Design the sequence.
């Protein structure tokens, strides 16, 4: 089973700041089959990025994904008030599908 | 508009059973694999089970294998999760999720979730 480690656990930031979230896999993720989701309190997750760097439909271009192999990054170029949430990475290269533990982006 | 509506959650005793349902609309249900993903209170996401569009192939997390059964009725556009031998650690919000249009094991639409509580 591929274990995904996300860091940091929590980030305290202000609107307008740039955010970089990390996701490290315990082994190489084939074909960069790595996705990112956003989840707000009381809501279901929302797909942001798939294939490590492709934005899902309707996702603003301030969200971008990068990385390969075992190290992946989600970047939010300029935090908007609606971006304060928990972010999860997920690998879908191997069964079982696995998620990282999440990074909470909170308002400073 | 794609909609996924889960139902069937509730309070059940350890060792008991529950059947979750997920009513789908707004897309060709039989063309898409579906999955159940759960989230324990205050915790992260955990993939539970996956079924392909025809229903012929199913996959399970080790934590539920042998206890949970995923199925679907394409004539009713409904996904199911039969949960037997429930344990306290199965307590979670259970989401049904649709495989993304572009394929792969990502999920582009999710239901609102149904809470399962296992406690005596």
Sequence:
């Amino acid at each position: 089973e591929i274990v995904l480690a996300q860091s940091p656990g929590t980030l305290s930031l202000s609107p307008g700041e740039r955010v970089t979230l990390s996701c490290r896999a315990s082994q190489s993720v084939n074909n960069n089959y790595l996705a990112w989701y956003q989840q707000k309190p009381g809501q279901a997750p929302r797909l942001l990025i798939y294939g490590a760097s492709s934005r899902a439909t309707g996702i603003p271009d301030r969200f971008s994904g990068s990385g390969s192999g075992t190290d992946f990054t989600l970047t939010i170029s300029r935090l908007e008030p609606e971006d304060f949430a928990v972010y999860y990475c997920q690998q879908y290269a191997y069964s079982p599908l696995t998620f990282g533990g999440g990074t909470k982006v909170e308002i400073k | 508009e794609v909609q996924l509506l889960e139902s069937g959650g509730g309070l059940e005793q350890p060792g008991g059973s529950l059947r979750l349902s997920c009513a789908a609309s707004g897309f060709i249900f039989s063309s898409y694999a579906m999955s159940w993903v759960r989230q324990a209170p205050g915790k992260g996401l955990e993939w539970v089970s996956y079924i392909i569009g025809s229903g012929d192939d199913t996959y399970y997390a080790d934590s539920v294998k042998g206890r949970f059964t995923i199925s679907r009725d394409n004539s009713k556009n409904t996904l199911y999760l039969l949960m037997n031998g429930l344990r306290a650690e199965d307590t979670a919000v259970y989401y049904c999720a649709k495989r993304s249009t572009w394929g792969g094991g990502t999920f582009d639409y999710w239901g609102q979730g149904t809470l399962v509580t296992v406690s005596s």
Remarks:
- Chain A has a mean pLDDT of 96.
- Chain A has no helices and eleven strands.
- The radius of gyration of chain A is 13 Å.
- Chain A touches chain B through 24 residues (CB under 8 Å).
